[in-house]
Every structure is written in C-alpha cells, then in structure tokens.
Design brief:
Strand content: 35-45%
Largest sheet: 7 strands, antiparallel
Order of helices and strands: HEEEEEEEEEHEEEEEEEEEEEEEHEEEEE
Number of strands: 27
Shape: elongated
Helix content: under 10%
Distance between the termini: 71 Å
Radius of gyration: 29 Å
Length: 397
C-alpha cells in the first residue's frame, strides 16, 4: 500500500520533511516497512542532468497525539474551512514532535499552495490548485468527515471556486474516501461544473463562484467516504498541459440538514385532528378516529437517499411498546416528494372509553442503516379543538 505525500524541496539546503502519517497493519509489522523517496528531477535516461538527493537522519516517530487540520474544523454540527490558518507542511505542535497536526490531502497531477493572493472574503487565504494534466488532475482533501460523527447524517456543502485564465473546461466536485492513489470510492454526489466566460457556465472565469452539493455520510464497501474531491478535465479532446485551468478554493461551509426541518430552517412538528362515528343502528355508540400529519425533510432531494421513513405510533400507557397500534413505513419516495415530505396516518376503531387515552406519534427516517427520530407528539380524540362528527358506520362489538 502506498501512503505518500508530495512536497517541494529547495536546492542546496537541508530540509526536515515529515511524511504522511502512516498506521502499519499487522502484515506490515511482520514483513517490515519500506520507505521510498522519489524525485521528479531524477531521470533514468538523462544521466547527465540528474539531480542528486541526499537523505540523512531517517527516523520513525511514534505519534501519540495526532490530529489533522480538517478534523478541527468540522464536526456533527458542520463547520467552515477557510484555510486562513492552514499550512501545507506537517506541523509539530509545541516542542513535542509526537504531537502532529497535518494538512491531509492528495494531489495527483498538479501542485497546491496556501496563498493570500486571492481570498473569497478579501482578507485571508485560500487554497490554490494548479492541475498539470488536462484529462485527470485530482485534488482530494481527506478526513473532513468522521464515521462516528457523520455516518447517516446529511449536510449542505458550499464551496467558493475562482478559476483563472481564458480556457474552458470543467471540474467534478463531490465526496471521496481518502485512500491515496485510489481511483475508487467516490460518493454519489459528484457533480460536473463547466468553466467558461458566459452565464451558461456554472463557473465563470476570473471571479469567485459558489458551488453546492448535498453530502450524506456513507460507506463505500468497508471504507467511509470522508473527503472532498476536485477533478479537473478539459473540454473536448485537449491534450496539451498549457490548456489546464488553475483555480482557488475557499470557504468550504458545511451545514447540517435536519431530517425534520424544512428548507427555511424551521422545525416542522407533528399535528393531528380527530372525529367520531356513530353506529348505524345505535347513535349513542361512538367510535373515534385520529388523523396524524408528520413531516420529514426533502432538502437537497434527500428523500431519494432515505433507506426508509414513516411514523411510529403507540399508546402512551403501553410502557412495554408491545401493543403498538401500528408502525407506518411509507412505501414510495415519489409520493412523499409530491406531498412535500408530509406523511398522513389515519387511526380508526378507537372505542369511546379510550377517547381520553393518549397516543404517541414519532416520525423517523432510516439513513445508511441508522435511525433518526423526530420529536414525540401526543394526542387523544378529546384533544380535538372541535370534535368532528364523521357520520355513521357499522361499529363492531
């Protein structure tokens, strides 16, 4: 397994380099770990112009307290990455080299730097990426999301992009698992953004643009999708590296999506109404009915990603929950989208002696195998502001 990191080293001076952080497997420990240093200036054919590279004082450090730049920025409540305090070099925090804070990334075909040349807010820094391959130059930022905190949760991701130059092309942006050198484990949220000079382009050259997508914490096989990936591709069949478009990245804002809140950020609670029937042959005999109206979010078309959804309903006095009246799981996502996320559930056959017995209704969604619950709502037939007469029916004994 490769676990590499690309760094620039100036000529003619000794430089201390910290590699990417590596966690050895049991097999690695048994067989041994091989360290390799590659130089882009080394040539197998042009021996006269080879660059000589000296390596000394090689050490393996035990990192007792390791963290990454990104995990300090984002948690289950979201966060902002503005690069104002970022450094591309691994940083030793304080005097203890075993405490490392790493800017965790992979740059395939291109170079990056933290710069103050451009900033979306005008007074800080941004991340500058210069692709070197028109067909597949990729930058991945790792460890932004965490499996324990983010699995099954969804977030709106907003990113500022400033493409530079006059060449057209496009950037694919979305989520990816952070395995160095891997061309797999992409999220389902990858979108393509065209670069150009007119309003039909999603990214206008030489100005700041905003792109947005919805991320849901997910597994790809046994791997958690933890990063954000940027892949540059030229328009058409261009092949010359001079046609690539460098761009600045700034203000990655990650905002949680509450599965029981509408697009205005307002919590949508469950509501109910009730009425009663009388028996066809005995009008003094009554039977109640309750209509429950619950809500689950479709922000960013997130309904399409739910494993399942519905409303759990039970009698409040049933402490064991063994006599649950019903567990309702909506069968179709399309009807739910057409209903703007509202789920209606009708409960009938409530005997008059139970008109004061509360029921509990709890909306839920299941996402990536995890169940998320809305607020509990309690109601009984006699809670209706105006108990409606619904007509007659044959009421069974």
């Amino acid at each position: 397994m490769y676990n590499y990191k690309t760094q620039s080293i100036p000529y003619g001076e000794w430089v201390t380099v910290l590699s990417a952080v590596y966690t050895p497997t049991a097999s690695d420990i048994e067989k041994g770990i091989t360290a390799r240093v590659n130089s882009e200036k080394w040539s197998f054919t042009d021996t006269a112009n080879r660059t000589t590279l000296y390596v000394d004082n090689f050490e393996i450090l035990n990192l007792e307290n390791y963290t990454t730049y990104f995990e300090d920025k984002v948690n289950e409540n979201g966060g902002t990455i503005d690069f104002n305090d970022a450094s591309l070099d691994n940083e030793s925090l304080g005097a203890d080299v075993s405490i490392v804070k790493e800017f965790d990334y992979e740059c395939q075909s291109g170079t990056i730097e933290i710069t103050d040349e451009k900033d979306a807010n005008g007074n800080g820094k941004s991340l500058y990426y210069s692709p070197s391959n028109v067909n597949n130059s990729r930058l991945t930022l790792f460890n932004i999301f965490d499996k324990e905190e983010n699995l099954g949760k969804s977030y709106k991701v907003s990113i500022k992009i400033y493409p530079v130059g006059e060449t057209t092309g496009h950037i694919n942006i979305g989520s990816k698992h952070g395995i160095a050198g891997s061309n797999s484990y992409f999220g389902s949220d990858i979108n393509s953004y065209t670069i150009g000079t007119d309003d039909s382009s999603k990214l206008i050259l030489n100005q700041w643009n905003t792109v947005e997508f919805v991320y849901t914490g997910s597994m790809s096989g046994s791997n958690f999708i933890d990063g954000i990936v940027f892949t540059y591709r030229a328009q058409g069949s261009l092949s010359a590296s001079s046609n690539v478009i460098p761009y600045y990245i700034d203000d990655i804002v990650i905002t949680p999506i509450d599965y029981f809140t509408n697009t205005d950020g307002e919590k949508v609670g469950t509501t109910a109404d009730a009425g009663y029937y009388t028996d066809t042959s005995d009008e003094s005999k009554k039977e109640g009915a309750i209509l429950i109206n619950s809500y689950v979010s479709n922000e960013g078309n997130v309904i399409e990603r739910y494993d399942s959804f519905g409303v759990w309903v039970y009698r409040q006095d049933d402490t064991t929950k063994e006599e649950t009246i019903t567990v309702s799981r909506a069968d179709g996502k399309e009807p739910l989208k057409q209903a703007n996320g509202y789920i209606n559930l009708l409960i009938e056959g409530i005997g008059e002696e139970f008109f004061d017995t509360k029921i509990v209704a709890v909306p839920f969604v299941v996402m990536r195998g995890k169940t998320f619950w809305g607020d509990e709502f309690t109601y009984c037939v006699n809670d209706a502001a105006e108990l409606k007469y619904l007509g007659t029916k044959d009421i069974a004994e």
